[in-house]
């Protein structure tokens, strides 16, 4: 830990320790505090700050409000040969996802394709850790989740969809997998919250105000509605994710998750669907070497065009940098963490 | 059949008969001619004209060039408990997809989730018929396919991805399913081809010319590159579909399909991945009534906002209209069909 222009700098180990200490202090059971802190460390390591330490108040507030369980043990069931279900019993999702990865990966390897449905889980983290974990085992993976209603459907003016991210992971023969994790809204909600905190405006196309008209003001946007990315096609993807992470697996729609968050903690509780496919079963030949080498040909051609990059490149560059240099904690965040009891 | 301002009007039965007669005349086996003509009739019925009769020269040219098989019988294999593979042996895909629907649906019902990989199939049709077919059986379905390289990756300037559509289908308790079928390019290629034919310009954001700069001219766009929809996020989806419909299932990437189309027929040969999930297995309770009724709550809320519509609404409205009124054949298309031997 070191001081820096009114803020300070933490190693990723210190990020983990700080997060875990705060969560334990506020009543989380050890297993949950550790799993959540691994997610926060991963997010800070990849410079996804809006899923990192910035989120600690959301975790704590959901507990204080009596909405999230501090210690629920996830329970696993197997409703069909290709399916695993984990009921998180209103705990936060990182522990459930860690527990589901192994059974899901085994099923995908034996069945060719398999799905994990996680129910009743509070979730304010990124999706990429679970698809990266599966892709790191040689599997192709998808994840879908919804959230509180904050995004207007295309053509409409009032929030109905969550920011509804989907993530996709593809294993690579060398190095970490190719992964993307993208909101089906024009921006992540956390990006608007961070611009509000930092006094910055929003780009065109991100949001409309409560009057249904375009706005560049973060506060007006948060009171109004975010917009889907890519017009009607992005709106269709948001709609699809509502159905996959909600009704399909017997969980809530975004607007229902929002109604259930009576305390307004911003830590919605709902479902997540994770799919895994095994290239060794799907591609003829019975091993995953050929399909993965084939994928590399595409990546080479993308990178041969000036101005392109692969979806996860920026995060992996950040990961290498933060492993050496740690991360900067701005003064506002330091004060928040101190307010939660951190000795910073 | 009736005359109309230099063109003419056909019933959907006549669309089918015309298509089938042309395909038989040019050497297609009966089973292929019938399956392709069912697809063409469905496309015209939903006013997806760029997948309808407009495509007949593509089918015929692929045969004339010796690239597509007129009579290959698709063969089915089962590489894993959750997977079905159909090798189309260089025939056109409609017959393979019709044959794969039943085995895929059965697997999804027993396993909870299943995948169909179709290999070595020529494909110039829409994707929605296969997801609609599965959703009509109560399943949630996805389809992904790639094509000839025509779309630049985000940040780049040269074609690499196909227009790479994905389709999604969700069953509804009453009436036809909710379905979308959307290119991951800003427009379908057929839409540009039809604007070229009709002498119309392109909207902003659809394409760049061979010089890498934006263009509104259809001919310049077809010589240059189409753009992904929704910027980097649409580009990520195009990339994902390349991997799913190609390397994952042991088939080609778009640029490879293009290289293989030596005669430049525009009827690429490659793979398609179809996924099916059974809500009756994924949602607790063991029946699909509850998840489907739950989905309706979302659709009601979407439609309660003025200015919105459900993704498939326009196609279904067209379907009702064309069933009564048939479709108009413009003079240029009539001449093309006559050139192929149709008695119109």
What does this protein structure show overall?
The structure is a homodimer of 344-residue chains. The model of chain A has no long low-confidence stretch (mean pLDDT 96). Chain A has helices at residues 12-25, 30-45, 56-64, 93-111, 128-135, 189-198, 218-223, 231-245, 254-260, 279-282, 289-303, 313-325, 331-339, and strands spanning 2-4, 7-10, 75-80, 83-87, 113-122, 140-145, 166-170, 178-182, 207-208, 225-226, 269-277, 327-329. Chain A folds into two domains: 1-64 and 313-344, Malate/L-lactate/L-sulpholactate dehydrogenase, four-helix barrel (Hypothetical Oxidoreductase Yiak, Chain: A, domain 1, Orthogonal Bundle); 74-185 and 228-311, Ribosomal Protein S8, Chain: A, domain 1 (2-Layer Sandwich). In chain A, α1 runs antiparallel to α2 and α2 (30-45) crosses α4. Chain A is built from 13 helices and twelve strands. The longest helix of chain A is centred in the N-terminal third of the chain and has 19 residues, at 93-111. A seven-stranded mixed beta sheet of chain A has the order 3-4-5-11-6-7-8, with helices on both faces. In chain A, strands 1-2-12 form a three-stranded antiparallel beta sheet. A two-stranded antiparallel sheet of chain A has the order 9-10. The first copy, chain A, has 344 residues and is α+β, with helices and mostly antiparallel strands. The interface between A and B is large, with 71 and 71 residues.
